[in-house]
Amino acid sequence: xxxxxxxxxxxxxxxxxxxxxxxxxxxxxxxxxxxxxxxxxxxxxxxxxxxxxxxxxxxxxxxxxxxxxxxxxxxxxxxxxxxxxxxxxxxxxxxxxxxxxxxxxxxxxxxx
Amino acid sequence: xxxxxxxxxxxxxxxxxxxxxxxxxxxxxxxxxxxxxxxxxxxxxxxxxxxxxxxxxxxxxxxxxxxxxxxxxxxxxxxxxxxxxxxxxxxxxxxxxxxxxxxxxxxxxxxxx
Lengths: 112, 113
Description:
By secondary structure, chain A is mostly beta strands.
């Protein structure tokens, strides 16, 4: 059974800092991995989707990498801003289950 | 192009009642998935529909059911509500059957008293 873990659970950084969020998964037989952002009380906003054949994806200040062999993905946020404050969730699709399996998320706070 | 819409956005019910939540996917998307989000359990998969057929189901009791219509809109129903059903219910749509990229709606916040 796929398990997705995100460490740390919470992170506080000063504005302008570059940071890395971590996601690990137990079953490497995934089709893709998706990163989401969730603001309090809101739905999920898709940030990046990495297919199993890809190593990384970039969108603006965000870069996500995928290493299937080690069961890890990272989300790199460059030059963080207070508006980046939110909970970031990673989810894998595939393995033995035909649906997205989510981590518990990393709550990011960027201080001005 | 409009995003995924969910109605209602907020609901308050009492134990034993039933509730129906609605989800309209992005135009052209044929797959709809439902998830329950609670502080303790995080996001958990309920079920997924594609072309009016339930393709996948999570580990929830039979009180949770759903359906999809020919226009791809989906509804989920929870009967005999329990306090533990209080949660944010999220709907996601994708162009085809997953593992395509999934896009989420704003959710329906259900409170059971």
